[in-house]
Amino acid sequence: MSESNTRKPNRAGGMTNSSSGKSKSKRPLTRPSNGSGTAIAGQQGAQAQRKLKSPRELAMDTLVKVSQTGAYSNLQLNRTLQEAQLQRADAGLVTELVYGTIQRQATLDYWLARFVSKGLHKLEPWVHQLLRMSAYQLLYLDRIPAHAAVNEAVTIAKKRGHAGISGMINGVLRSIDRGRSELQAAEIKHADPIMQIALRHSYPEWLVKRWAAAYGAETAEAICASGNEQPHASIRANTLRSSREALIEQLQAAGYSAEASSIAPAGIIVDRGGNLADTDGFREGLWTVQDVSSMLVAEVVAPKAGMQVLDCCAAPGGKSTHLAELMGGKGKVWANDLHAHKRDLIVSQTERLKLRNVEAITEDALKLGERFKPRSLDAVLLDAPCSGFGVIKRKPEIKWTKTAGDVSDIAALQQRLLNAVCELVRPGGVLVYSTCTIERAENEEQVARFLREHPEFQLDANWPEDIVEQLREAGAIGNAFEGQAQLLPQHFDSDGFFIARMLKRP
Ligand SMILES: C[S@@+](CC[C@H](N)C(=O)[O-])C[C@H]1O[C@@H](n2cnc3c(N)ncnc32)[C@H](O)[C@@H]1O
Predict the structure, then answer these.
(1) What is the pTM of this model?
(2) What is the ipTM of this complex?
(3) Over the stretch 339-397, which tens digit does the pLDDT of each residue have?
(4) CA–centroid distance, residue 385 to ligand 1 (Å)
(5) How far, in Å, is the centroid of ligand 1 from the Cα of 45?
(6) Given the CA of residue 385, which atom of ligand 1 is nearest to it?
(7) End-to-end alpha-carbon separation of the chain, Å?
(8) Active site annotation includes 312
(9) Residue owning the nearest CA to atom 21 of ligand 1
(10) Are strands 308-311 and 377-383 parallel, antiparallel or unpaired?
């Protein structure tokens, strides 16, 4: 039996993550960004590396690097997988251990603290990560026999540390194994309801407090639980090359589980699809890998063929290419990003999708007024840099690394960006503001302030009807829809996203 990656159904009291349900597929198969999980014939160096380090040791090293250096988990994991050249099942195990351990670290520490008498803060970083990672296997993964998790941890400890450490690790993990029927997250009780949510679902207290204040405690808990779910893999049909229906048939014929997204008109949910960016269909430009909530942004811009459109913060180009597709390849999309090295990402996407009406440019969006005439563009999209709390499913370390100060800083930048780029919209034109976060300060409050200071703009509820209907059904908007929506991650099992459509008065 491969012990690769299946998560326990609700084993430790959190949300279920079994492989059975539609939204519960195995983690490595739903994380396309870690595409190096496919088997790659080993080079000599890679084989030597593999002999030296087991998948668990690689996972532990990745966890230490992420926590010590602040590296993004997905990038660090990709580096690890590329260097190690693992077989698919082993890459799946490393992926599961890295994401799962980061995701559940507060709950894991809560239990570990019971058994580590000298206190977790006194542990060396690798010992702490090894304990977390092994406790994660015992408490959250059902295909991994307890003896494998414990023995592997002890083997790593013997290799890395002295006998006292391996003995301590053995003792702690065996205690957790013996007590695991009681170590259920749902059993965690705390006098403070905020702390209870934080410990059960493994989030920092300040963040839960903020979300409870913004959305109420019940919704805050649902946000937290949803953030621990496996993300769906989804693709956006390039409707200039094929239809969504034809692609679904094609994918199903090739053995994929593919179905139309209920919310995104070009979206296809693909379960158990492996790395969708490593497929012929992707290489041929038939689709783009993108979260369904992210697909709504260009639909809300709703550009017409022939329009002049500017995407101010565009890399890697997911929304710019979508805009160009919606325009039938006619008109012009300027895809701008601050970072010159990201221009290549946009260019490679437009070339792959065979789009000729996208021009990638490099500029600080605060200075786009030096390149474009005021009031000259039909539509401007500001998909702003943000705190990213909507994508915790994919980047779980965000919840541990971002601070309330980061939210204020990024909100101040967003405000300056909005003030700068709104000048470029022509009278009667559209300005769409979006973020992949669920912070009011970056979303509704940002828009309210902007509208106060720019009376020439007004919210515009003229969104595609089907999308509005789906948003209403999911509870993302009420009856009085004014033209902005906050999608929470639980609404469509997607990323959390905010979108506001504003019109410049003629
Ligand atoms: C949310 S991401 C954009 C994602 C992109 N719209 C997509 O759908 O693929 C934000 C982007 O803003 C860029 N950025 C940050 N500050 C910027 C600035 N001052 N001017 C232009 N781009 C900026 C970042 O490099 C990053 O690529």
Answers:
(1) 0.89
(2) 0.99
(3) 999 999 999 999 999 999 999 999 999 999 999 999 999 999 999 999 999 999 999 99
(4) 5
(5) 37
(6) 10
(7) 66
(8) no
(9) 338
(10) parallel
